[in-house]
Amino acid sequence: MHNHPDITPQLLQQIQRWIEIESPSHDAAALVRMATHIERDARDAGLSVEVLPLHADTGPALHIHNRTAGNNDKGILVLGHYDTVHPIGTLDRNPCRQEGDILYGPGGYDMKAGVCLALYGLSQAVKQGGTALPVDLLLLPDEETGSHYSRPTIERFAANARYALVAEPARANGGRCVTARKGTGTIQITTHGQAAHAGIAHDQGQNAIEEMAHQVLALQKMTDYERGITVSVGTIRGGTTSNVVPDHCFIEADFRVVDEHSAQHLQTQVEALQSINPAVTMTIEFDLNRPAMPRTAATEALLIQCQDFAQQAGWSLQEAPRTGGASDANFTAALGVPTLDGLGADGDGAHTLHEHILISTLAQRAKFWLYALMRLR
Predict the structure, then answer these.
(1) Mind listing the pLDDT tens digit for each residue in 270-303?
(2) Cβ(38)–Cβ(82) under 8 Å?
(3) What tens digit of pLDDT does each residue of 56-81 get?
(4) Residue at a domain's end among 269, 290, 311
(5) Measured distance CA(39)–CA(102) in Å, rounded
(6) CB atoms < 10 A from the CB of 321, how many?
(7) Are the beta carbons of 85 and 351 closer than 8 angstroms?
(8) pTM above 0.70, yes or no
(9) Which one, of 284, 287, 258, lies nearest residue 273 by Cα?
């Protein structure tokens, strides 16, 4: 990279430092440690930081920005998260290490490196004369578990955003960005039967697991690849011991939908389910956690601008096909904010022990963030 020969080592050092502070979603103390570290880095880079407590069970949201007092103009909302899926102790088995062009480390690709790139872009833009629009970099502690604590904060910031750029990792094999994502949610069903001794009073029992077996098959059949709907029953539990007819059973299923229409179609099907055995009752909960992120004309216009910034930074920004995975981009897109996702680090292996980033791509991607945040208008 021409003007910034020292930028890769500087970024690499910061990314390694961040990876080595483990921050799993379910560990509030670890999340607070990570947030404190990010806050210090952001202040050292000359940026304003607002710490927004969310809940005792999680870390704070961090609002890192370059707004002057009283400036409430619609700006660029940059979204990132600092929680990871990896439990404390993962580093012991899988240390952060460099092998050639690859930096391995849990949570580096998804998505500490992406946050470092966006933070670099904003700090450099401020040093080089500022940004055309105010920038709000919002970092969250619970994306990997559904952003339940963060969602109201994301939506509050989205209401004052002209664009949203999301620093989730780029798609593997070419570092492509994401312009459309499926919506995600969960279906929970509980069946309530009648317990009885399996040997002495078998005929008096009403088997909740047997009933659930019918419902599991019915749910799985709701997958419709042509409509882009998938349903996957992921967990099941029920009964007490094998010599008791079980009086309860519980399942949780994951579903993915491409748009609001397919979500409504699936919800209608699920809520119409009936017990095969009328003596066993059922409760059903259908929860669309993240609405779908459709590709719109406004998304395309934003993509064209960002492709130009990437070109100026020396690389070609391509878009990936719609992904079944969800992110916080789903929330901003659902509110009508033109949103581009997958603008973070290039690499592979999210949520695995071979998670890694490609070191040689860092400088160009950092330069992209600088240009995008300075010039997007």
Answers:
(1) 999 999 999 999 999 999 999 999 999 999 999 9
(2) yes
(3) 999 999 999 999 989 999 999 999 99
(4) 290
(5) 27
(6) 9
(7) yes
(8) yes
(9) 284
